[in-house]
Amino acid sequence: MQGVLYKLFHNRGDPNFNGVTAHSIEIWNEDGELVAGELGTSVGSIYTSLTGFYNESGCGNVQLLVLGHLLQKCDFLLWDLGMFIEYKSSLGAGLLKRNDFLAKYRALREIKTAKLECKEKTNCRDLVNQIIDKSNANNEEQKSNDNDGDQKMQSADSNNNGTDGQKPMSKNQRKKLAKLERRRLAKLKAKEEREKKQKEQVTKNSAQPNGDTDDTKDVIMESNNNNNVNEENEDTNIEQEK
After folding, report:
1. φ, ψ for residue 162, nearest 5 deg
2. Closest CA to 41 of 116, 119, 127, 98
3. By the 8 A CB rule, do 37 and 25 touch?
4. What's this model's pTM, rounded to 2 decimal places?
């Protein structure tokens, strides 16, 4: 295993291993002493931690914090921390079901855009702040785009309303209106389904044979018997008259 990792590290990957590359993550103090680090591998946009160490209290957490931001900077999409340990959860790690993990792993290993590089020593705090500032800038840009979209929608609503003096609907009002419309469409769909079932039932009944039921036969037989009795009474009356 050590020989394979050594080869993957110095050759920066191996095509026979689907592009898997080994990495050495190192944290040095101001005195030039190695105080924390880990070995890991990457494939596609996935980074996997293998084993780590620290020589000074708290340096292990710093190493994980900085590595997380470095992976984000290098466009990695999944960080595999291995088996669950409580301290990993305290740092923000989450659990994945095995099937979900395998599906995500198979998909992300084919995305080759991520590349883990840090060619020169960089201050840990500066690296973290750099990623945080970039993330905040992206959030502000997204928020600005959302606001622009809301303004355009309000402008369109205003134009549709004409000059009748009505105020454009707020975002919450539009959501409420959309919710009511979904309910109306759901009720309409349910009504159409009921009518469809009723038509199918009528068609099914009309397709049945037109044979008389037992109740109908009983009524007809009873009626015939009554007719026979009446005919006999009439014959008796005729004979008496004669």
Report:
1. 75, -150
2. 116
3. yes
4. 0.54
CB-based burial of residue 42 (10 Å sphere; 0-12 exposed, 13-18 middle, 19+ buried)?
A: buried
> Which pLDDT band, with edges at 50, 70 and 90, does 27 fall under?
very high
Cα→Cα distances 157→23, 164, 170, 175, 177, Å:
55, 12, 10, 14, 13
Letter string b/e over residues 92-114, b meaning 16 or more CB atoms within 10 A of that residue's CB: ebeeeeeeeeeeebeebbeeeeb
Contact 26, 34 (CB under 8 A): yes
Q: Calculate mean pLDDT across residues 28-33.
A: 91
Question: Secondary structure of the chain: what % helix, strand, coil (to 5)?
Answer: 60, 15, 25
Mean pLDDT of 88-116: 88
The span from the CA of 224 to the CA of 218, in Å, is 10
Q: Are 55 and 34 in contact (CB under 8 A)?
A: yes
The mean of the pLDDT values for the chain is 76
* Beta pairing, strands 78-80 & 21-28: unpaired
Token match 């008496």: residue? 240
Element housing 51 (H / E): strand 46-54
Strand partners, 48: 41, 80
Provide the total of helices (H) and of strands (E) in the chain, helices listed first.
Answer: 7, 4
